Amino acid sequence: MNVSRMLSAVLLILILLPGEAPGARVDQKGAQRVAFEEVGQFNDGGMAVTVLVAGNLAYVCEFDKGLEILDIRDPRNIVKLCQVPDTDQARGIALVGDIAFVSCNVNGLKFFDVGDPAKPTYLGQYGARDGDPHEFVAAGKFGYLTEWHGGVDIIDLSEPSKPRRLSQYKDGGMAFSIQIVGPHAYVTEFEAGFKILDISDALNPVLIGEHNNGGETNALHVAGGKAYVCDKLQGLEILDVGDPARPRLLGTFMDGGSAVGVRLVGDLALVINWELGLEAIDVHDPAKPAKIGSFLDGGRPNGLQVVGDLVYVADGSDGLEIIRFRRDGAEGDEEKPELL
Q1: In this structure, what CATH number is given to the domain that contains residue 110?
Q2: What is the percent of the chain with per-residue pLDDT over 70, rounded to a whole number?
Q3: Is the confidence at residue 3, as pLDDT, over 50?
Q4: What 8-state DSSP symbol labels residue 18?
Q5: Among candidates 292, 244, 232, which has minimal Cα distance to 265?
Q6: Is 2 a domain residue?
């Protein structure tokens, strides 16, 4: 074979080899190592955006219809217990004992007694906010509320039915998601990126670290000294936060679409993507995350929670979906968290 033919053959091989998008890796073994199976669904026509599972109940925020409470003890026969009134534009839900805190976007943070989940009782509304509430989480005697245009409020929950603002962190960003780990609050602020606050003094939260690649950050999950941050433009970012003052990017997974939710199960990141559905990303080597499974049957997933081997997905117009996952060839051996 002459030189020109050899070069032509090499070029042909290169053209035929499958390409790989920047930051995207697929398991090179060629076999799907995580399998998904839908085991239940509930859809009443609302736009499901967030889900919280507590025992046999699922609290599902529907942006257009508000909060609904479902009995999920039998995933194949889910029963709606109630639709909580006056919770239009519900975006977030948290429980403190029998009190449900519902973030209702422009309608404020409202709270209800859900001791009887079939008959919630309205208790009141948090009135100190400066923006549209997005996510509320509770840790000990404090609550933390992210507000679109309003920053982060730290709230006294010593009397949960009478929440009172203690302090606020506000830097002009659009606070989105938040997780509390020890004395630190990990926050995403959309175009302002990922931030770490020292909240050891509840009266004086202080910014100590940040990371911003110029994307649109939204959901996050902090585990094992790492932060897994969803960015609509740049995919899943994995950051070392062992030193909170100096978060460091370890790796990125991006395969198209918009990553909007993540939960960690051992070395597996379960990611929801508006266009691509539920994805399983192997993150044992954070510098080289690789997709090893996926599930897509329509809808537009917005929120997820993992309980054992079940993923509860708030899947937009497809409602609540319950999906079982397992590692192929290692059934029964995979790590199963209690609640994520």
Answers
A1: 2.130.10.10
A2: 87
A3: no
A4: P
A5: 292
A6: no
How confident is the model at residue 284, as a pLDDT? 95
Distance CA 322, CA 127 (A): 35
Residue 295 in domain: yes
Q: Distance (Å, rounded) from C-alpha 326 to C-alpha 320?
A: 20
Query: Smallest Cα–Cα separation from 252: which of 211, 224, 201, 293?
Result: 211
Q: Tell me, what's the pLDDT at 25?
A: 59
Average pLDDT over residues 163-181: 95
**Which residue, 222, 234, 225, 297, is CA-closest to 262?**
222
Q: Which helix (H) or strand (E) holds 9?
A: helix 3-16
Instruction: For 202-240, write each residue's pLDDT tens digit.
Output: 999 999 999 998 899 999 999 999 999 999 999 999 999
13 within a domain of the structure (yes/no): no
Q: Does 306 fall in a domain?
A: yes
Q: Count how many domains the chain has.
A: 1
Q: What is the DSSP string of 26-61?
A: B-TTSS--EEEEEEEEE-SS--EEEEEEETTEEEEE
